[in-house]
């Protein structure tokens, strides 16, 4: 693709704070800046009447729209971008919001069909295309069915050669699966439509009509299952959990990281349990904010990344968007003009222990940072080695006027290494369990004394191993002990 490259991504809000589903898309320009576009009723909360195009994202007054799922990013050229924006501009006025029913015309859209029509106008080829009866739940469900094939591939491959002459039993199996998916989609649709008290019958009929074609769709797609499974497997193989704290290259030699080898443990998700994590080297710094005022950085919510809770109650989508929430003057730069600038710190973990000390925390100005630009200049992944990646990259300005690198990291996570000592569900070891050997657990399995405190079955099985126990009885007890240790021992006793 010659010329400037743009990217588009579809996002789905299907379980947000206002219980109103919404489909919208994001355009990322060659300079890394992005905007969100969506179609919704002009009057908030209405399900019919005049429609309006809403423009949101980093740097806007509304900020980023919340979402729970997203498509892949699609690259488009300059001509497609101009056609896409031409459609957006042409529908800003004179368009009507369609909420169901038979009275449908070309100038009527809901959020899903508006997005689909916009992509068609720009010649953007997608794996699915909405008709006028679609809503965000159905579009999201369709995408999830695509994902379903990675789990169902073995079953379907066994039947590829039998598609033309399926047995009655096979047909019943497919029918049961389709009905189950239809029931789930219908229940999800009902939860939304109950709040609106309108068009429930239309929504149910649309879902039921669509799922009647699901069996034929499966058979048509069966021949393509090999390529689909290969693609999905490759994507799954490359995926790593997103723990993306905003990081600054302080010494000018690039952001450096260390592997998730168990040396550094940190509580990214705020459950009180520290897990093995990739980490930044001691000569670079994490951007942090002591939100609970206890003098230490003790959880992912105090970094700037996907575990940051925004002012609207949603979670951030990246480190840059998390910091943008503090851009009170809305100029796209975090600097002394923003209220929290003096409270934000740079953390250099000098001893690489994953725990902040007072001597490791510096104000932005003391660390030589005058401002941080909030729009990344590139979203291309860069492999840092050690299993760590940086995706969004931008810049910050030093107090001497020179520029430095800022980046959203994707730190590798290794759940084999963990520390339960700060768990929100603390376990006080019982006197009986304290007499047991001090066997250490790993991963989600607690140390033996804690596990036996939580499980009376486990404690009794170990206590039964008295001297003189036969080999067969010992083996049987060990099977029980292993099973109990492998169970969920975080909660109530077994």
Plain-language structure description:
30% of the residues lie in helices and 20% in strands. The chain has helices at 78-90, 111-121, 136-157, 168-196, 200-212, 214-222, 225-238, 319-324, 448-454, 456-463, 471-486; strands at 6-13, 22-28, 34-41, 49-56, 69-70, 74-76, 96-97, 108-109, 246-248, 257-258, 265-266, 274-277, 279-280, 285-288, 333-334, 345-347, 361-363, 369-373, 382-385, 388-398, 403-410, 413-419. With 494 residues, it is an alpha+beta fold. 33% of the residues are buried. Helix 4 (168-196) runs antiparallel to helix 5 (200-212), helix 9 (448-454) crosses helix 10 (456-463) and helix 10 (456-463) packs antiparallel against helix 11. Strands 9, 14, 15, 16, 17, 18, 19, 20 and 21 form a nine-stranded antiparallel beta sheet that branches. Strands 1, 2, 3, 4, 5, 6, 7 and 8 form an eight-stranded mixed beta sheet that branches. It has four domains: 6-134, no CATH class; 138-238, no CATH class; 246-418, no CATH class; 428-486, no CATH class. Mean pLDDT is 77; it is low at 100-104, 129-134 and 488-494.
């Amino acid at each position: 693709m010659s010329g400037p490259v743009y990217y588009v991504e579809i996002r789905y809000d299907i379980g947000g704070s206002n219980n109103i589903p919404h489909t919208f898309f994001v355009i990322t320009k060659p300079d890394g800046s992005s905007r969100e576009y969506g179609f919704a009723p002009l009057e908030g909360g209405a399900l019919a009447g005049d429609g309006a195009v809403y423009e949101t994202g980093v740097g806007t007054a509304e900020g980023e729209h919340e979402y729970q799922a997203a498509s892949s990013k699609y690259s488009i050229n300059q001509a497609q971008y101009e056609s896409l924006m031409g459609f957006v501009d042409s529908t800003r006025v004179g368009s009507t919001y369609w909420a169901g029913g038979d009275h449908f015309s070309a100038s009527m859209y809901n959020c899903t069909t508006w997005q689909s029509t916009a992509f068609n106008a720009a010649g953007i080829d997608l794996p699915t295309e909405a008709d006028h009866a679609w809503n965000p739940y159905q579009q999201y469900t369709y995408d999830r069915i695509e994902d379903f094939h990675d789990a169902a591939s073995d079953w379907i491959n066994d039947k590829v050669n039998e598609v033309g002459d399926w047995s009655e039993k096979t047909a019943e199996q497919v029918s049961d699966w389709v009905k189950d998916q239809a029931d789930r989609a219908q229940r999800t649709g009902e939860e939304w439509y109950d709040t609106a008290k309108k068009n429930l019958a239309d929504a149910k009929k649309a879902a039921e009509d669509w799922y009647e074609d699901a069996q034929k769709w499966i058979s048509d797609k069966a021949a393509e299952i090999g390529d689909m499974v290969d693609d999905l497997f490759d994507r799954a193989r490359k995926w790593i959990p997103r723990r993306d704290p905003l990081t600054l290259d302080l010494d000018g030699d690039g952001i450096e990281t260390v592997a998730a080898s168990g040396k550094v443990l940190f509580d990214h998700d705020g459950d009180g349990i520290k897990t093995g994590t990739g980490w930044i080297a001691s000569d670079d710094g994490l951007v942090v904010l002591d939100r609970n005022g206890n003098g230490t950085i003790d959880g992912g919510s105090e970094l700037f990344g996907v575990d940051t809770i925004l002012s609207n109650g949603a979670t951030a989508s990246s480190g840059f968007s998390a910091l943008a929430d503090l851009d009170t003057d809305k100029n796209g730069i975090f600097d002394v003009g923003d209220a929290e600038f003096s409270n934000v710190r740079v953390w250099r973990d000098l001893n690489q222990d994953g725990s902040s000390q007072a001597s490791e925390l510096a104000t932005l100005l003391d660390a030589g940072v005058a401002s941080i630009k909030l729009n990344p200049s590139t979203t291309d992944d860069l492999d840092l080695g050690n299993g760590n990646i940086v995706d969004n990259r931008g810049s910050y300005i030093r107090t001497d006027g020179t520029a430095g690198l800022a980046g959203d990291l994707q730190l590798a996570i290794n759940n084999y290494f963990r520390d339960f000592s700060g768990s929100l569900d603390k376990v006080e070891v019982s006197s009986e369990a304290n007499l047991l050997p001090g066997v250490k657990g790993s991963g989600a399995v607690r140390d033996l004394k804690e596990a036996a405190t939580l499980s009376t079955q486990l404690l009794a099985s170990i206590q039964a191993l008295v001297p003189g126990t036969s080999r067969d009885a010992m083996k049987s007890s060990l099977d029980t002990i292993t099973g109990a240790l492998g169970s969920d021992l975080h909660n109530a006793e077994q």
